[in-house]
Design a protein that fits this description.
By secondary structure, this protein is an alpha+beta fold. The protein is built from 19 helices and 14 strands.
Length: 569
């Protein structure tokens, strides 16, 4: 790769960024109710409903309002050794404290870096910050690099995946103990999978317009929360489209499965794949915590209160199987508790309603107290064809997809529809590019390509709204480029990946290693200027000082700290 400017706007700017100041929260909700918007994707009047709402919004100063929306990214990347194996070294001290750094932390593993951008109003700034963070990290790595794919390689069992460490404070010990618990419950292998999270928030002025459009005269924050929860339901209903379009894990390293049986096909000697797979990360071998039977966790997405109540029940209900796990071994806590979920974040879902936490506040309490502040879309693979793992065009499509999910009526769903949602997502993950694949919708089966084309047709009005008064129709263009993947599945990242592996005679390992090295060169050839370098060095120093202050301030035993945390109400 050359050292030319990146393909997204603003990435080479000299802008300095402050620490993360996450999405602003609104007033606490007074009550909960479901926004009543009748209809489904098959309603013949649905497109006209969307177009009517868009027309009303177009009559307002919508462009100025939407310029205040906030977009952030969380991108995970495995830190690997020269041979592509998971790094066994500690989190580099020059990157700062993983406990307190606002932008560079770790996820499950000490080797699984997570880059967190502040929320910005413009994609240019979000991607520019992510680019700067990568360049700083690369300047600090010693004979290591970042893995370009979601799925790891050269994995030698659970023992080769070091659990993240966060210091001796109670807060740090809690984070590590939680991760030990995940390892005992599900194994460490799936915890080493990386992804990209797309965080999105509309400004209050937008919600005031929407409230007027739908004729709601109630409390604004209640309307906002109800609308976000409705979006969550639609993002689950139509969310299979995301792995189809952007899935980039159709093949995996044989070492990831070890000796486990699999229905996947062998690719050469050291890889497995599914011929029509899009995102094995989102399938059965990826991150899953619903084991079925008595271990099943049913989360209610039909209202904010239902969502909060169902998660709170899961984190407070004992589960006998987990009671068999030692709580403390050799002075180290092995899990936070023996309940169905240790904490709310253990429940995996493709999209989450979120609120900014205050201190050690529980996520469900933050939602109950202040409502929903933003959405976190979690179903994106790391795009191995992009050095940052995601592109500006992807982000534009996702923004229009979220708007479609808001404008589309979102009735509550029952157990049958929730089962269909899970079925559709898994089927697309494993065989989404099969031209004969049918998905479940309203008790019937429909070809994926037919349903996808309906969605694209209905998204067009929202793209016109987002492109209003813009000289370049970038949202409509992004929509059309993604739509081309429906008629030409070979354009999808998953198909491109398998095609390159075939053309080059590569295993998954060699493909991912080649892309990783290309990305490393991309960042190394564009070192940070002195001002940005000093800025990131300052963030690292400040984060270490904050961790030390937290550790010094602890004055209660860890067990008491946990009791106080879970006693919050």
């Amino acid at each position: 790769m050359s050292a030319a400017s990146p393909a997204y706007c603003g990435a080479t700017s000299n802008k300095l960024y402050t620490a993360v100041d996450f999405f602003a929260s609104g007033a606490p909700p007074r009550h909960n109710r479901t926004l009543q918007l009748a209809g489904t994707i098959q309603d013949p009047v649905l497109k006209s409903v969307i177009e009517q709402r868009v027309a009303q919004l177009l009559d307002s100063d919508i462009r100025k309002v939407l310029q205040q929306r906030q977009v952030g990214l969380e991108k995970e990347s495995l830190r690997v050794a020269a041979d592509g194996g998971i790094a066994q070294t500690p989190h580099p001290a020059t990157l700062g404290s993983a406990l307190t750094h606002p932008s560079i932390t770790t996820d499950y593993s000490e080797a699984l870096l997570e880059f967190v951008t502040p929320p910005f109003h413009h994609f240019c700034d979000t991607l520019g910050f992510l680019d700067d963070t990568h360049r700083y990290v690369y300047s600090q790595l010693d004979n290591e690099f970042l893995w370009a794919s979601s799925m790891p390689c050269v994995v030698e069992g659970d023992a080769s995946i070091p659990i993240a460490q966060y210091g001796s404070s109670n807060a740090g010990r809690m984070k590590t103990a939680y991760r030990r618990g995940l390892g005992h419950r599900y194994g460490r292998m799936m915890q080493a999978i990386a992804g990209v999270h797309f965080n999105y928030s509309y400004p209050e002025s937008f919600w005031q317009l929407m409230q007027s459009v739908v004729g709601d005269k109630g409390d604004l924050q209640t309307f906002i929360s109800d609308s976000y929860i409705g979006m969550v339901r639609n993002l689950q209903r139509f969310g299979w489209l995301v792995p189809y379009l952007f899935g980039a894990s159709p093949a995996i390293c044989a070492s990831f499965l070890g000796a486990s049986p699999t229905s996947l096909q062998r690719w050469r000697e050291y890889s497995y794949y599914a011929p029509y797979a899009t995102s094995l990360r989102m399938g059965d071998i990826g991150y899953q915590n619903d084991k079925g039977g008595e271990a099943s966790i049913k989360v209610n997405y039909n209202s904010l209160q239902g969502y909060v109540d169902s998660l709170q029940a899961a984190i407070s209900t004992p589960y006998p199987e987990y009671a068999k796990i030692e709580m403390v071994r050799d002075g180290e806590w092995q899990q936070l508790n023996s309940n169905r979920l240790q904490i709310e974040n253990e429940y995996y879902s493709s999209v989450r309603p979120k609120q900014i936490l205050r201190g050690e506040e529980k996520p469900t309490l933050a939602l109950a107290r202040r409502g929903v502040a933003y959405l976190e879309l979690r179903s994106l693979d790391v795009n191995a064809f992009e050095p940052l793992g995601i592109s500006e065009e992807q982000m534009r499509f996702l923004e229009s997809f979220l708007l479609f999910s808001l404008l589309t009526p979102s009735a509550p769903y029952d157990d049958a529809e929730f089962a269909a949602i899970k079925y559709n997502l898994n089927e697309v993950a494993v065989r989404g590019r099969d031209p004969q694949l049918k998905l479940r919708r309203n008790g019937e089966e429909v070809l994926l390509r037919d349903w996808a084309n309906e969605i694209f047709e209905q998204m067009s009005a929202g793209c016109d709204l987002l492109d209003k008064d813009n000289r370049v129709h970038s949202y409509c263009d992004a929509l059309q480029r993604q739509r081309a993947k429906i008629t030409s599945p070979d354009l999808t990242p998953s198909a491109r990946m398998l095609a390159e592996m075939e053309q080059n005679g590569e295993e998954f390992y060699h493909f991912a290693l080649r892309k990783s090295r290309q990305h490393q060169q991309w960042f190394d050839e564009r070192p940070l200027d002195e001002a940005k370098l000093r800025h990131f060095e300052g963030l690292a120093r400040d984060s270490i000082a904050r961790q030390q202050a937290i550790e010094a301030a602890d004055d209660i035993p860890f067990e008491t700290f946990l009791q106080n945390y879970f006693a919050q109400s």
